[in-house]
Amino acid sequence: MRNSGVLPPWLVLDPLLRGWLLEDIGRGDRTTNTLLVEDVTLGSAKWIAKATGIIAGLPVAARVFQILNEKVSFVMVMPEGAWCEPGQIVAEIHGSLDALLMGERVALNLAMRLSGIATLTNIYVEQIADLPAQLVDTRKTTPGLRLLEKYATAVGGAINHRMGLDDAVMIKDNHIVAAGGIGEAVTCIRSQVSYPLTIEVETENLEQVKEALQHKADIIMLDNMPLEMMCEAVQLIRQQDSRVKIEASGNVTLDTIRGVAETGVDYISSSAPITQSKWLDLSMKILFK
User: Fold this and answer.
1) What is the pLDDT of residues 90-129, one digit of tens each?
2) What are phi and psi of 182, to 5 degrees?
3) Residues 60-93: pLDDT tens digits?
4) Which residues contact 37 (CB under 8 A, 6 or more apart)?
5) 233 near 259, Cβ under 8 Å?
6) With left for phi above 0 and alpha for psi between -120 and 50, is residue 129 left, alpha or beta?
């Protein structure tokens, strides 16, 4: 499959990767540091897939090893975003054995986590591939891993929703209560938030949809609506303001996503590809010294 994910620059990611390496290495790798002389003993290794899935995170894994030793060569045998089968070689690595051994766990953990997310994301995407609706991710991510987990959903074929609270305005149920209503919330925010931030309003029934339309929300979310009500809401929005984008959300599963897409919404947001994915099993085998 085509890899549509774009990684943030290393300027952003390096502090995270260094922190995770420090967490694992601590005061020093007692085993590797005792057995090997730093930068002297060279070796090679292969990464092997032990399950079927989409590979994601190989550039990040390569960077982990290169932070430990910039001379490490990490060759991606399989391209990022490709489907792998058990027994296939995913990558080949060559360099100082101390770097390979100290970076192994962090690099594998990240690649297995991201590959699992990309795999489940793609399974969701394929359920609606012939329909106009697009799958988007959410902010239900692991603290510290958001940039990479959202990268993995993009590799799997989804679209990134807002990366954080500063990306767009989303007026949810608790904001509506706090403001005293949809109209009050939209009016207050529109008077203070500058272009080009969009305003999205979460709605739970047709009356709220009408109110969001009245106050010219840019995006209307249909949250946890029964399919029949969702169809009515989509028709109502299309008839009154064709510029408004429509997002469906709430307990979307592999069993329900197609029915939701068939209502005519533009986007379907789901946290499941991240929160319910399993790690894709990968292993590293040292070949020789």
Assistant:
1) 999 999 999 999 999 999 999 999 999 999 999 999 999 9
2) -65, -45
3) 999 999 999 999 999 999 999 999 999 999 999 9
4) 98
5) no
6) alpha
Residues in the chain: 289
Beta strands 89-96; 73-76: pairing state: antiparallel
Among 154, 122, 128, smallest CA distance to 141 is for 154
User: Does the predicted model carry a pTM greater than 0.90?
Assistant: yes
Which residue(s) pair with 136 in the sheet?
Answer: 159, 269
**Dihedral of alpha carbons 173, 176, 181, 187, sign:** negative
Phi-psi region of 251 (alpha: psi -120 to 50; beta: other; left: phi over 0): left
Which of 253, 244, 240, 248 is closest to 265 using CA atoms?
Answer: 248
Picking from 121, 59, 72, the residue whose alpha carbon sits closest to that of residue 269 is 121
Closest CA to 51 of 286, 289, 277: 277
Q: How far apart are CA 51 and CA 197, in angstroms?
A: 42
Name the 3-class secondary structure at 25: helix
> pLDDT band at 32, cuts 50/70/90?
confident
Structure tokens at 262: 């068939």
Give CA–CA dist 177/253, Å, rounded.
Answer: 28
Which residues pair with residue 42 across a beta bridge?
96
Sign of the CA dihedral with 85 first, then 275, 124, and 134 last: negative
Cα–Cα dist 162/168, whole Å:
6
> Is the sign of the CA dihedral 217, 221, 227, 229 positive or negative?
negative
State the Rg of the chain over Cα.
23
Token digits of residue 41: 């003993």
Closest CA to 106 of 71, 57, 73, 140: 57
Catalytic residues: 105, 140, 172, 202, 223
